[in-house]
Amino acid sequence: MGGGEILLILLAVLVLFGADKMPGLARGIGKGMREFQKAADEIKGELINSTSDIRDEMKSIRSDIQKNISEVKPNLNELKSTFNNVINDPNEIKTEPIVSGNASSENAEEESSGSPKTDTNNKSFTDIGANI
Q: How far from the centroid of its chain's Cα atoms is residue 65's Cα?
């Protein structure tokens, strides 16, 4: 609003209410504005107080997540390095068979019968990868 518009509004108020009621009207408007500002400040304070617990909890969660990330990151880098090595040279992988729970009794059966026992669970890493 420009100066001319404000002057026009004041002139209209003067005509409607008269010169003797202008100071009381201005005081009432000022008092109402102060009360409104006080209420707005109280609401703002309540919101800040009620959300401070939530903000503290979020900070705690964030620090826990950052701590977990810093603990896991070296393992991920090692895994990435191993994976890249496998991709670059798959012949370097050690393909040892996966041994099931009771290997000593199976070996005893193989020795006594003279023929090796076939175990479908006894697969190497490359055999498993070929099936995928």
A: 8
Q: Are 86 and 93 in contact (CB under 8 A)?
A: yes
Distances in Å between the Cα of 28 and the Cα atoms of 21, 32, 35, 107 are 11, 6, 11, 101
Indicate the SS3 state at residue 28.
helix
SS3 7: helix
- Confidence band, pLDDT 50/70/90 cuts, at residue 92: low
Instruction: Give this prediction's pTM.
Output: 0.37
Please state the rounded mean pLDDT for residues 87-116. Answer: 55
Residue-wise burial string across 89-104, b where 16 or more C-beta atoms lie within 10 A, e elsewhere: eeeeeeeeeeeeeeee
Q: How many CA atoms lie within 13 A of 39 on its CB side?
A: 6
